[in-house]
Write a structure and sequence with these properties.
The complex is a heterodimer of chains A (about 375) and B (about 290). Helices cover about 45% and strands about 15% of the residues of chain A. Chain A is α/β, with parallel strands linked by helices. In chain B, helix 10 packs across helix 12 and helix 11 crosses helix 12. The chains are: A alpha/beta (about 375), B alpha/beta (about 290). The interface between A and B is large, with 44 and 45 residues.
Chain lengths: ~375, ~290
């Protein structure tokens, strides 16, 4: 193992702190707590051995597999600058763009005057809202869009409930020996009424896969706002699909819709790219779905089914998804267009594995979608 | 232990082979008393690491298997109600009437059932394995976070129990969901990759000394080739060992393509994967590792 002069020399801590700063700039969560652990780790290891510094940082400063690649890259760059050779860890294959940090962008919604943003829906607004409810999202002008955002913010998307193995105190059900005997003890051993427990109910997870590719551009923003409103209240996972799959659940966790949209815009690298639905669905199932995210969940695809890749692959992946999920719902904004038939090769291949095929072009259609997710009758 | 090299040597004595990164991570876990958070595909040796550590440290392995409905009474402690009740009846029968004394006796340590987490705090030294933490729910994760940062529990009737020496903690996750950052921050992180050919062969030879060298090499080569394919579930080291064991049980000294296809069930657990493997030229892979 080679020694790293800059680490053995004076100001070793400063060098390591600089490294942590470089990692933060690269998008890693090198928080104070992690950095403290890193310094302690380096202190107990062989001082100045490059391999040890590398592995100490990798254990203490990384928190997921995605972090590792970035870590390798920053390590190579930082310690090469500090005067050394390549690290003894694996060398990264290609340059990775730094993970976009969350920044507040100037979106149209944030520039709206204060008083207008906080108006409560009055009669006049309600009637225009009623008209707006049935309009195609793709054909709205800027003012109507602002209204639409207010409408969408009121959405909630609870999944149907399922029984969990966890038991909760209940009025009826099986006897609960723990609570019964505790009561008994409290009364000095005098017989006490039986206590009961029953299995609890929980809403199922809802997974939204939002297509943000080029063909969906007119309604992608509205659909993401819909996703934001639904992700806020329940256990909902949201992913975007274009040329790549991006998990945006974390970005959407912000309360303010405009800030959340800005965060998503920064996190999604391939806004308006082409769609390879089948391939992305496979990535989703491999990385998330099969491991648990899609298991027993209600999976909603918001897409026009415009597949650039092999429709057969999409069909196979849809069958796989259908075996894992509780229900698969496909909301297609184009379905409402006059004369629409699911002729796009991708859509035709996917339909046999879809439990409910609904529209998704207007607020009213999204309301209907929310009802279908909740378990109401299919369209 | 003095350094990562010593940790590695001790682990290898138990038959568990580690690379540089894992040796450093284990050393830090022991030295800094930080839990080790192990993530990776199924069957790459995350759980086996905990047993190997226990054996290397000559400490008991205390295992907590997580599931969706796990709660504190299954993971930490519970009162032994039937025994408490019996004690109460017995006290009544012998005419003990002092209520305070009786209550003191009733919540004595001997009526407390220690579940894995409390057992790990009380046993010194010990290795605590929290297996498949991703299967537990958020509430349990938060509870665990509290315990792992203090290594102490407060039982209302008894007071605070603190571990004199914190146990070595290994957490594993198959990434069925993202574990909360707050928990990860308290831990050392290690990602388990599939091992290289040489390393995997060494592991198979170590675990199955009875299996012929040629068979071990062929099976490892086949599994490495299968992993390159686009499978629904790429086989882990555990599957490699299973396969070699299965072939050995069939009395095979070496394997040909036909036998490999017949025993594919030990490695591939999805019909799509099996179909795909049948279509591959296994004989060519075997030839590469045959010579």
């Amino acid at each position: 193992m080679r020694a790293v002069d800059s680490v053995t020399g004076r100001g070793a801590d400063a060098v390591l702190l600089g490294f942590a700063r470089a990692l933060r700039a690269g998008g890693l969560d090198a928080s104070a707590e992690r950095v403290h652990a890193f310094l302690r780790a380096v202190a107990v290891l062989r001082p100045g051995v490059r391999g040890d510094v590398y592995w100490a940082g990798r254990s203490t400063l990384c928190g997921s597999r995605e972090d590792l690649e970035r870590y390798d890259e920053v390590f190579t760059a930082y310690f090469a600058d500090a005067g050394g050779d390549a690290p003894e860890g694996p060398t990264p294959k290609a340059a990775i763009p730094p993970r976009p940090r969350l920044v507040v962008r100037d979106t149209p919604g944030t520039t709206a005057p204060e008083n207008e943003r906080h108006t409560t829906p009055t009669g006049a607004l309600a009637s225009s809202a009623e008209v707006l409810r049935h309009r195609d999202i793709a054909e709205l002008d800027a003012a109507e869009r602002t209204r639409l955002h207010q409408l969408l913010a009121a959405f909630a998307l609870p999944g149907p409930t399922r029984r969990t193995p966890r038991r909760r105190p209940a009025r009826r059900g099986e006897a609960d020996p723990r609570r019964t005997v505790r009561d008994l003890l409290r009364h000095g051993g005098e017989p006490a009424p039986l206590r009961h427990r029953a299995r609890a109910e929980r809403p199922r997870r809802v997974v939204l896969l939002v297509d943000v590719s080029g063909s969906m551009t007119p309604c992608a923003d509205a659909l993401l706002r819909f996703a934001h409103a639904s992700a806020r209240t329940t256990r909902t996972e949201v992913f975007t699909l274009a040329t790549r799959l991006t998990r945006v659940t974390r970005e959407l966790a912000q309360r303010d819709p405009d800030l959340a949209m800005a965060a998503v815009a920064a996190a999604v690298p391939d806004w308006s790219g082409g769609t390879r639905l089948g391939e992305l669905l496979r990535v989703f199932l491999d990385r998330w779905g099969q491991r648990g995210t899609a298991r027993g969940a209600v999976v909603v695809l918001l897409s026009d089914g415009w597949e650039r890749g092999d429709p057969e692959l999409l069909g196979a992946q849809m069958r796989r998804l259908h075996r894992l999920a509780h229900r698969v719902i496909w909301a297609n904004p184009r379905k409402a267009r006059p004369g629409y038939a699911p002729l796009a090769a991708g859509m035709a291949a996917a339909l046999p594995s879809v439990d409910a095929f609904v529209e998704g072009h207007s607020p009213a259609a999204l309301e209907r979608l929310a009802a279908v997710v909740r378990g109401a009758d299919d369209a | 232990m003095e350094g990562p090299e010593q940790v590695r040597a001790r682990l290898e004595e138990t038959g568990y082979l580690v690379d540089d990164g894992l040796a450093v991570a284990c050393f830090l876990a022991l030295g800094l008393h930080r839990p080790l958070f192990c993530e990776g595909d199924a069957g790459v040796g995350k759980t086996a690491l905990a047993s190997a550590l226990a054996e290397a440290l000559d400490a008991p392995l205390i295992r907590l298997q997580c599931h969706e409905a796990i709660d504190a009474s299954q993971a930490l402690y519970d009162w032994d109600f039937p025994r408490q009740l019996l004690h109460l009846r017995a006290a009544e029968a012998t005419g003990v009437t002092d209520a305070d004394q009786l209550e003191g006796e009733l919540y004595d340590r001997r009526f407390l059932i220690a579940r894995p987490l409390l057992r790990a705090l009380e046993t010194r030294p010990s290795v605590l394995l929290v297996d498949e933490i991703d299967r537990a729910d958020d509430e349990f994760e938060a509870f665990l976070l509290e315990l792992l940062s203090e290594f102490a529990v407060t039982i209302p009737e008894l007071g605070t129990l603190r571990a004199e020496v914190p146990p070595v903690v290994v957490l594993t996750s198959n990434r069925t969901r993202e574990v909360h950052d707050a928990l990860k921050r308290r831990c050392l992180y290690h990602w388990f990759d599939h091992p290289s050919f040489g390393r995997e062969l060494a592991i198979v030879r170590r675990r199955l000394p009875r299996v012929s060298a040629r068979l071990a090499e062929q099976v490892t080569g086949l599994v490495q080739a299968l992993r390159e394919e686009d499978l629904v579930k790429p086989p882990g080291v555990a599957e490699t060992i299973d396969w070699a064991e299965a072939l050995d049980a069939l009395g095979a000294e070496e394997v040909d393509a036909e036998l490999a296809v017949a025993t594919l069930g030990s490695v591939l657990k999805y019909r799509e994967d099996t179909e795909r493997a049948r279509g591959l030229d296994l004989a060519a892979v075997l030839a590469a590792h045959g010579a």
